[in-house]
Design brief:
Elements (H helix, E strand, L loop, with lengths): L1 E7 L3 H14 L2 E4 L2 E5 L2 H14 L6 E7 L1 H4 L16 H7 L1
Antiparallel strand pairs: 1-3, 1-4, 2-3
């Protein structure tokens, strides 16, 4: 399944660790605090657990949105939807 990970994390070191956890899980950065990629249910659970141990649940927020490809096809992009310098060609292909 496609998975969006969106976060608002107060401290830079924690934010960096969450970004690294997302990259290590195999998903791709589409904006500074937004990642997208394909993971199975077990990988989503593993990533959620890893992030839960990194963040301060009283201050930080992390959303993990699973999305099927059919629904992804209905995503609307307005304006500059992602930072082209941060994303890989694979993610660009998903948006085209």
């Amino acid at each position: 399944m496609l998975v969006w990970v969106v976060y608002d994390i107060e401290k830079n070191p924690v934010r960096s660790k969450v970004a690294k956890a997302c990259l290590n899980a195999g998903i791709y950065r589409v904006q500074k605090s937004v990642f997208l990629g394909e993971l199975n249910a077990t990988q989503v659970d593993e990533l959620a657990l890893r992030i839960k141990h990194l963040i301060d649940e009283q201050r930080d927020s992390v959303y993990i949105f699973p999305m099927c490809r059919e629904d992804f096809g209905h995503v609307r992009l307005l304006g500059q939807a992602f930072d082209k310098e941060l994303v890989t060609d694979e993610v660009r292909a998903l948006f085209l």
